[in-house]
Amino acid sequence: MITLLRNLFCSSLGRKYVMAATGGVMLLFVIGHLAGNLQVFIGPEQINKYGDFLQSNLEIIWPARLVLLGCVALHIWAAAGLTRENLAARPVEYATWSPTAASYASRTMVWSGVIVGVFIIYHLLHYTVLVQAASLGLTGQDFAGLHDQEGRHDIYKMIILGFSNLWVSLFYVAGVGLLCLHLSHGAGAMWQSLGWKKNSYAPFLDGAARWGSLAIFLGYISIPLAVLLKVIQ
């Protein structure tokens, strides 16, 4: 077991496995989180009931949060290690470089990952930790004090207030856009790192990654757009 863990965490191949596996877990979270958020279109009763269910089952939500946090940490660690190895293997810049074989998403994976990390921290502080919105969310109201008639945290109103600010919505759209740009390459590369990407169906996996990332992007941004356009209010 010790040898297996050493090979997993101390070799390039092992770090690729770690990055792929943790990326897969986080992709599932992104999809599940989207499914939960889209319940806002059903109405305040549904989204508030969903939020109350999560907050009332801490024995479920906290282990999930810890696993997700661990995956984020391991993903960053593996990515940083692989980036250092790549730079060490090519200490001298190319005299001429033409990125014809690499997509824009693949060439910007490191920077998009860093920016997405900053976006996630802001988003968690804004909507999960509920840091005073007057200073963070630009709404002038404390989200922690919002409750519906049933005494539940009023997530519906929180979403309306948060995304009613144009700057918050624009930052959210930009952040989700970078996240999905990251996913459009990472979701396809994940199968390659795990050794499950064969030439016969590689184009299908790459296409599914790109179109799936676009669908996720459209799903997430539909919420701030619906608030700004008064579709939900």
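[next item in queue]
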Amino acid sequence: MESVNHFSTIALLIGEPARAAMLWKIMDGRMHTATELAIAADLSAQNASMHLAKLVKAGLLSVAKRGRLKYYQFANPNVAYVMEAIANLVPKENLMSPDDLSDGSRIKYCRTCYDHLAGKVGVAITDKLLSRKIIETNHQDFMISGSGIKWFERLDISIPELKENKRALARKCLDWSEKRPHLAGAVGAALANKLFDLKWLQRTKNSRIVSVTPLGQKKIYDLLGLVV
């Protein structure tokens, strides 16, 4: 009964509209100030602080103080997986923020899902990794093959080092726009970060939308035989 009560408490915290808006804002993978989250949820600073305190106390958010400002982010990646899973129950057109409505096709094409890639490009990359047996299906998760470990090494991504983290290595995250899984977990985050560092992908300011650069189009094709 205790676990049911705890589940109910978490569901109520996430389900409250203002808090849901703030959590959805954090899905872009960035740390946000209370002011930014208050604007996202259309709240006063005082009300936003009250809601944020509840989310921190419940272990859904963590807060870091830098100077006079407090920055909020998910306490752990599992919160992002829960948010993405819930998103699969919502009609696609209702999931876009006002800033993204005019770019509906772009956010469905390529975006961040917290700290890894999603959308058509994220799913396509995952499919290529599967077809080339770089990753393999393992029930609810993915696993990295022996040849996959060497493939990631060529991108300067160490699978043994990632295994030392407490975070799940390679998770299946059901994509809300494609309705198929994309690669999440420590490996998904490391791969996304590498593609951003290489300037193959580029973030869009104040949005989860990701653009594939001309360099990225060529390099991703060379790497995976994938046209994006």
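[queue empty]
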